[in-house]
Design a protein that fits this description.
8-stranded parallel barrel; alpha/beta; two-stranded antiparallel sheet; TIM Barrel; RibuloseP-bd_barrel; 37% helix; lyase; binds ligand LARABZUK
């Protein structure tokens, strides 16, 4: 049974955890190798221990050294919802994702434009949640025209391949335009607890990769971001 990222974000919030989607990020254009001798499953197990709401993995090969097979392996090895991030432009890629146990698929409004709604509907027809990603007011208008229940706000300009600075100013600017019951996810460039606090003033969840992958003590850092939860 495919796990729902939407439901896990809601559940984590009800439990008074911060809803954190933790990315297993193997490589970045800015920092290079991020695994640093660890296995993908090592990272997955650490994230699982920290009560994250879900897992993100980039399958894009050229800039992020991702692989679809690794995505499939992650999905097979966790009960958490897994989001596939890539530059998806076709129904074929939706179908390919649906054949795995992956839960959600990134659809980038800036790339898809007026085809965004069509691919969102295709995701839903195949039992996959769509996370429509925006970076501008124009993108936000596109996202609002779709049936997506998850909208990601990318704090970085993806065309700059992470050479822009981090921070959450884009979330602070764009989130108020998204007048919708869809859940909002602040993505990218979140590296401090101040970024986290500011992002969660406007979003329901955050998506974090680099800050966790580069942490000296990953488990400690992830737990700081997830927070104490409602448990004693
Ligand atoms: O965000 C995108 O649109 C995207 C699409 C395809 C490959 C990579 C993409 N962006 C990079 C990421 O997804 C980030 O790794 C992720 O948002 C985490 O960001 P950070 O915490 O700054 O590593």
């Amino acid at each position: 049974m495919r796990k729902s990222l939407y439901k896990m974000i809601k559940l984590r919030k009800q439990e008074q955890f911060n809803a954190v989607i933790a990315e297993i990020k193997v490589h970045s254009p800015k920092h290079g190798d991020l695994l640093r001798g660890r296995s993908v499953l090592d990272i997955l197990r650490t994230y699982e221990k920290c009560d994250v709401a879900g897992i993100s993995y980039i399958t894009e090969k050229k800039h992020f050294r991702g692989s679809f097979e690794t995505f499939r392996e992650i999905c097979r090895n966790t009960d958490l919802p897994v989001l596939r991030k890539d530059f998806v432009t076709s129904v074929d890629e939706v179908e390919r994702t649906a054949e795995t146990e992956g839960s959600a698929l990134l659809l980038i409004a800036r790339i898809l434009g007026d085809r965004t709604a069509e691919l969102v509907d295709s995701c839903h027809d195949h039992g996959v949640e769509a996370l429509v990603e925006v970076h501008s007011p124009y993108d936000a208008d596109i996202a609002l025209e779709t049936s997506a229940r998850l909208i990601g706000i990318n704090n970085r300009d993806i065309s700059r391949l992470e050479l822009d600075d981090g921070g959450v100013e884009v979330t602070e600017r764009i989130a108020p335009l998204l007048k919708t019951p869809a859940l909002k996810v602040s993505e990218s460039g979140i590296s401090t607890l101040d970024h986290l606090t500011r992002a969660l003033r406007h979003a329901d969840a955050v998506l974090v990769g680099t800050a966790f992958m580069l942490a000296d003590d990953m488990e400690r850092r992830v737990r700081e971001f997830v927070g104490g939860g409602g448990h004693a």
